[in-house]
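Why does residue order matter? Because the sequence determines the fold. Keep that principle in mind as you read this record.
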Amino acid sequence: MLLQIKQILFIALISLMACCSIMFLVWLWAKKIKNAGVVDVFWALNFPVITVITFFLSEGFETRKILICAAFLVAELRLGLHLWQRVIGHIDEEEGRYQQLRKEWGEKADRNLFIFFQFQAISNVILAIPFFIIAANPSTKIHLLEYIGLAIWLVGFVGEMIADRQLAAFKKDPENKGKVCDTGMWYYSRHPNYFFEWLTWMAYFIFALASPWGILAVISPAIILYLLTKVTGVPNNEEQNLRSKPEAYKKYQQTTSSFFPWRKKLKVIS
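Structure:
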C-alpha cells in the first residue's frame, strides 16, 4: 500500500510539472493573440497528457489501466477538439467572460491571467486523482463497480456529444439568431452538456471505488459539480445569454431546469 501511495504521488508530481509547463506556454500564446479563451482548450487537452503519463508510469493491472485510460482519453480528446473548433474558429474574438475579466483586472490582467492559467493546471492534477488511484490498483479482477462505472461513462459521453452537436446545429441556422436553443436535450435542461460532463466524472468516481483509497476520488465529481454550477459553467453562460437575449432567456429560465434534466415547468411568469 505504501508503494502505491508513493507511486501515485510521483505520477501526480510529474503530471503537475507537465501541466504547469504547458499552461505557461499557452499563457504566452494567449498574451500574444489577446485571447484567454484558449485556456479552456488546453485545460481539456492537459488530461490526455496526464493519461499518457499515468499509463506508462503506473504499475497497476494492465487491463484496468487500458479500460480507464482509454475512456478518459477519448472523452477529453473529444472535449478538447470540440473546444478547439469553438475557440480557434473565432480566435480573433475573445469570449465575453474573459473580456469582462480583463476589464475588471485592468493593468493586472496579464499577471492575473498567468495565475489563473496555473491554477487551471493544478486543477487538472487534482481532478485526475481517480485515475492515479485506479491505475495503481494491482488487482487482476475487474470489479462489478468498474463495469457500472464504464456504463455510466458511456451514457455521459454520448449525452454530452449529442448535446454539443444539437447546440452547434442550432447556432448554425441563421433563422435562430437571437433565439434560445430549447430543442432536443436542451428542452429538459438549460445546460445538458455540463450535466453529462459531470456524469462522466461521477462514472470515474464509481470506477475508482473498486480500488484501495477509491473513496478519495469523490473529490473530482464534487469539484466539477461546484465549478459547473457555481463558478465557471452555468453562471457565466447564464450571464452571457441574459446579456445577448434577455427576454427570451428569462422565459427559458422560468420553464427549464438549470442543470439536471427534468420536465418543463408549466407556468411562465411574464
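The CA atoms of residues 81 and 100 lie 25 Å apart.
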